[in-house]
Amino acid sequence: MKIISKEDFSSFVNALIQDDGLDVEGVKAKGNKFVFGPLDSAGELRLDYDVTILPPKKYFLPQYETMMHFDISTGTVTAPPITNKKVIIGIHPYDLAAIQQMDKYFFDTHVDDIYLQKRKNSILVGIVPVNASETAFYGDLAKASGGPADIAFDLMLTDLGNNYAVLPGSQIGAELLAKANVRDAQPQEMEAVKGAQLHAMDKASRGLKVGPKGWHALLTRNYDSGIWSEQAEKCLSCGSCTLVCPTCFCYDVTDELNLDLTSGVRQRTWDGCLLRDFTKVAPGEVFREDIKDRYRHRFNRKGKYLPDALGFVACVGCGRCSSQCVPDIADPLNLFNMLSESTTESVPDADVQHVPEKHDLAQTIGADLYVPRPATLRRVVKLTEKETLFEIALDDGQPLGHQPGQFVEVSIMGVGEAPISVSSAPGGNTFQIVVRNIGDVTSALHAKKEGDKIGIRGPFGNGFDTAVLKGKNLLFIGGGLGIVPMRSLINYVLDNRQDFGKVMILYGCKDPTELLFNEEVKKWEARDDVIMHKTVDTCAEGETWDGQIGVITTIMPLVTFDPMNTYAIVVGPPIMYRFVNRDLLSMGMPEQNIIVSLERRMKCGVGKCGHCQINGIYVCKEGPVFNYKDVKEHPEAFS
Amino acid sequence: MSDKPRVAFFDFSSCEGCQLQVINLEEALLDVLALVDIVEFREAMKESSEEYDIAIIEGSITRPMDVERIKKIRERASILIAMGACAYLGGIQRMGNKWTPEENKEEVYARHPGSETTKGDDNPFFEQPRHRAVDEIVKVDAVIPGCPIDSDEFAKVLVALLTGKKLPIPDYPVCVECKKNENICQFEIGGFCMGPVARAGCGAPCPTHGGECEACRGYVDHPHSQAHDEVLKKYGLTAEQIMNRKTMYTYRYIEEARGE
Questions:
Q1: Which one, out of A32, A128, A405, B12, has a CA that is 20 to 30 A from the CA of A153?
Q2: Is the pLDDT of residue B204 over 80?
Q3: Quick check: B224 and A276 CB within 8 A?
């Protein structure tokens, strides 16, 4: 630990500001509040601040961030320019902890290269808080977790009156400090630093009754508590609590096309689960329509969902949400205290940390996660009034390499991206998708013809586990567009027919005009090793139809099978699952023998943007194919 | 003749500030002209035309003669856009709907000194039965909210219409953009803000420059107005003040709730 006088610290900061290769950011006053912003001189720094309006996440996931530039006329996509190296001065430990959580989130499974670039380019200078806001409770969290967390920083300051104590936390920090006029700290100064840390904790302690490890159980037990609707009655659904939160990372993606109609940018911008259109999909369905559901989701994500997925509690006690919530219902401390008061028995600790381990940035490598691969439409076949089949080849000549049930993000620059299930069986240098013309991307795709270029990302997600299905009887139950992803598995099974037992296909749609894959369906019907039944909800007079009439559950009794040795693959609209699964279970089929594929708003496809969550599950990453047994515990799955 | 869509601007009861915002596109206006032919735009050119594809309407529909005029425009246009708070919501003049047409006429044209000349006049220009938004009279294909409109949003709507995309008008509240701008919340500094229920897309310029949001872009599709009323009450407004707070640009919703 080193000691630097405040005067020398100012000179040190001013010297950094003079360095053209470096952007120096720090905490400054804004009215009677504080913000992180660019520094013109060290004199602007307000290291005695309590909390900033927005957390430093804005440096790594900016409010509006260009992901790529595009030019439709030339078909080019270019990365945004690399930002200058930044020094960010005055980050409180709770915000550093949040950055550590952010690292874990953005590097999990798929490394977000846009985030990584900004993160690698930043030097973090922390400071032990001198003041705490009225709503902060990071002291409670630290005490409940047995002391301050092990957090990553490059330099850590402690205000000792006329001096700062400075602790380097990295090689970069040590190198930076070498430019400053410092001396070694005396033992009493080291003691003073410890005292300052304890003082900071005390200032931000408000009486949390159950520590963060107990939140998991509190939330599980109180999922159906009346507290959620009572609180949500006051909720404006304005999204402020999530926007100002250092551990809320969800974003939306939009394409901004310039007036020349050829150039533009794809950008991402902060989004939040409290906002109504967060879960809205193109056909208009909103998966969390009730404010209560959205309000509850936010707390569950913090105390249960992210702990389950990534092992940390996604709240650092900064108190921003509660200070920004005008009806005053966003405070996690209040909410968890309310939950604990309504829970009579004591709650066990979940096996989670408050802050995940430090991330080794140098060892983290990212590739273009969001840049689509150029692809060409090889064949375009109109199937029905609204649905068209597109056969696609990647321009690099590589096969897609997908598993049945996986999906791709279809990208049309200037319009956007849409998640689309792959409909063809694995193999070959082309793949097929079948798309309903319903939103911006799908209608732009429908306007394209053979030979036109599109972009493809993926394949993404978990498909059908064909190894598990091997040797079993298979009962396919498809409703409406559900036949599209299901077809990739049906054709895989038929390509490898000897590996499977009995194959039964039940396919239902609204009316005969909506029947997809007519010719293929006829072939399935003609095979003597496939039992096939089809039905329509209604059939208009004069319409030709050689199948059954009635909803899909009415044709289920037409097939007989041993429920113990049969797997049901169920894909269809949300309403279908409830009735089909109910009937399958009543026929004696074990829960683990039911396989479903679920649909949500999968915007990024790689588990970052947050839109597709079913309770704590990221459908794009853990699904879209699920075992019913695993997903049924999640109330939002079939609601 | 080019094959570009022909655009005509028409103004009804309004200050014509939204048309000014289109002119304020400045250089970008040249890009607009590369996409469309403007055939009528009283604020910017002297030519006019009765043949157009896209009609852009500014202003509320107020007098019987306005109703006839907007219906004729609708017949000629294949796309009709309501531009600005007056056309979209009825404008601040809609507050006049609180009183009867007779009361308004008496108040505006008869009660004050010097108004003797207009008293009892049956000139149709003085007729103002009700202030209505354009879509209450004819079908509207697109709206550009705001008082005035945002120039960039005008360009975005045009791009969306020309490329067949969904209109880029957000359905989240102004708080979202206000927070992204890292503003101090108006409620914290004694303001009574409509931001939590007001439709965003403007970039929250009013709170960013120290003012309250007046909801000039109307409400989001599902405003939680009851919760918002509670907040206004909590911060010290009386029921009457709350009602007044909600009439400036958004009296339309009050009328609709009453079934008027």
A1: A32
A2: yes
A3: no
Query: Number of CB pairs < 8 Å for A and B?
Result: 108
Cα A25 to chain centroid distance, Å, stands at 28
For B39-43, which contacts have Cβ atoms below 8 Å and span 24 or more sequence positions? Answer: B39/B6, B39/B7, B39/B8, B40/B8, B40/B9, B40/B10, B41/B7, B41/B8, B41/B9, B42/B9, B42/B11, B43/B9, B43/B11, B43/B16, B43/B19
Computed over every residue of chain B, the mean pLDDT equals 91
Q: State residue A21 phi and psi, 5-degree precision.
A: -85, 5
Omega cis (within 30) before A459: yes
Question: How confident is the model at residue A18, as a pLDDT?
Answer: 96
- Report the DSSP beta bridge partners of residue A436: A387
Q: Is the pLDDT of residue B118 over 60?
A: no
Q: Tell me, what's the pLDDT at A193?
A: 96
Residues whose CB falls within 8 Å of the CB of residue A498, separated by 6 or more in sequence, listed in order: none
* Residues paired with residue A88 on neighbouring β-strands, in sequence order: A25, A124
For tokens 């809609």, the residue is B94
Taking the CA of residue A327 and the nearest CA in chain B, the distance in Å comes to 6
> Nearest-CA residue of chain B relative to A438?
B166
Chain B within 8 Å of A133 (Cβ-Cβ)?
A: no
Structural domains in chain A, CATH included, are 2-62+70-203 (no CATH), 212-362 (no CATH), 373-460 (2.40.30.10), 466-631 (3.40.50.80)
Domain with CATH 3.40.50.700 in chain B: 6-91+131-163
A439 — contact with chain B (CB < 8 Å)?
yes
Q: What is the ipTM of this complex?
A: 0.94
The residue in chain A having the minimum alpha-carbon distance to the alpha carbon of residue B36 is A259
Which chain B residues are within 8 Å of A611, Cβ to Cβ?
Answer: none
pLDDT at residue B111 greater than cutoff 70:
no
* Residue B48: per-residue pLDDT: 81
Q: Taking CB atoms and an 8 Å cutoff, what residues of chain B touch A32?
A: 184
Q: Are A415 and B163 a contacting pair at CB < 8 A?
A: yes
| Closest CA of chain B from A338, distance in Å | 21
Q: How far is CA A117 from the centre of its chain?
A: 19
What is the structure's pLDDT at B55?
96
Contact A53 B220 (CB under 8 A): no
Which of helix, strand or coil describes residue A49?
Answer: coil
Give yes or no for a contact between A604 and A370, defined as CB atoms under 8 angstroms apart: yes
* B185/A259 Cβ within 8 A: no
Q: Coil, strand or helix: which one is A408? A: strand
pLDDT of B11: 95
Distances (CA, A) of A485 to A297, A463, A473: 29, 9, 19
CATH topology (fold) of B6-91+131-163: Rossmann fold (3.40.50)
Residue A575: the pLDDT is: 86
What does the buried/exposed string (b/e) look like for A564-578 if buried means 16 or more CB atoms within 10 Å of the residue's CB? eebbbbbbbeeebbe
pLDDT under 50 in chain A at which residues?
none
Q: Is A257 in contact with B159 (Cβ distance < 8 A)?
A: yes
B58-77 residues touching A, CB cutoff 8 A? none
